[in-house]
Amino acid sequence: MPQASGGADRQAVEFEGRRLVLSHLSKVLFPATGLTKAAALDYYARIAPVLLPHTAGRPASFVRAPEGPGGQRWYAKNPPPGMPEWVPVAEIASSEGPAPHVMVDDAATLLAMANLGAWEVHVPQWTVAAGPQAHDRLVLDLDPGPGAGLPECCRIAEALREELAADGLTAQPVVSGSKGMHLYVRLVPAGEEAVRGYARRLAGRLESRHPRRATATMAKAARSGKVFIDWSQNASAKTTAAPYTLRLLDAPRVAAPVTWEEVAGCRDARALWFTPAQVLDRVARGGDPLEVPAEPAALP
Prior knowledge:
Elements: E1 3-6, E2 10-15, E3 18-23, E4 28-30, E5 35-36, H1 37-51, E6 59-64, E7 74-76, E8 89-92, E9 99-103, H2 107-115, E10 118-123, E11 135-144, H3 150-166, E12 171-175, E13 181-190, H4 192-209, E14 214-215, E15 227-230, E16 240-241, E17 246-247, E18 253-254, E19 256-257, H5 260-265, H6 276-286
Helix pairs in contact: 1-2, 1-6
C-alpha cells in the first residue's frame, strides 16, 4: 500500500503524488474468505502496472458495491460523489447527450475509485482518442448455460482460436472471474458495424459446426448445455470487465489472463479461478500473458 498516516481504519496516503483518504479499511468485504477493504485496495495498488494498459485511454464504467458482494450493488457510468477533483474525466457522447466518464489512466485513480466502492472496472473496445467508431480490439464473451461450465468454455475457446487464426487473427484468453471467459483480439482499428458483424458471423459459424456445444442465439432458452458466444460485446455502447479487475462474487476472484496451455488443460473450473493473491503471484512469476506480442491485424 502507499505510505500512510492516521488511524487503523482511516488513513491519509500519498500515492503517485496524489493525496487520498482511505476509509473503512478493516471492513470485511468478502465474508467467505475474510478479505478486507484494506486487502482489496492493496491488490489494486500492486496489480496496477499490468491492469492499467487495458484501461488507459478508455472511458470506464464500474460495478459499485461499497458493502461488498453481499450488499447493494449497481452499474455506474457517471463519476461518483466524493471523487477527488484530480481524477481524469472525459465527456462521452450518448443518446441522452454528452456524459462524463472516469478515465482509469493511472494507479492513483484506480485506488481512488476502489476506495469509493467501485470494485469492478469495465471498459469498451475503443479509446476516447480514436472514438467509438474505431474499435482496436474484438472481444468474445463465452457464457456457459445451465449444464455447462468453464471447461466447456475452454473447448469452445480452442475452436474459436482456430477459426480466428484461419482469418489471420490472434486470440488471447482471459477467464472472466465469473462463470466463463473472454477472448481478446487486437485489431487494426475498424468501425463498430464491421467488428460486430464479423463477431456475429464467427459466432454463427461456430454454432453451425458445433451445434450441440455452442450457440450464437441471445435467447437464454437456447443455452442449456451449451456455451453462448456473446458477439454483442463489440457494440460501441457495451463494456467488458477489464483484465485484472476484481469480480463481486461471494469469494473474491479476478478476471485473469491465462495461457492457451492452461485453457487446453482445464477440466475443472476451479483450476482457472484465481484469488487476488494468486493473481499477484502469477504476475510476479510470469508477467502478464496479454503482454505477449500480438500485432494488430485487419478484419478479413
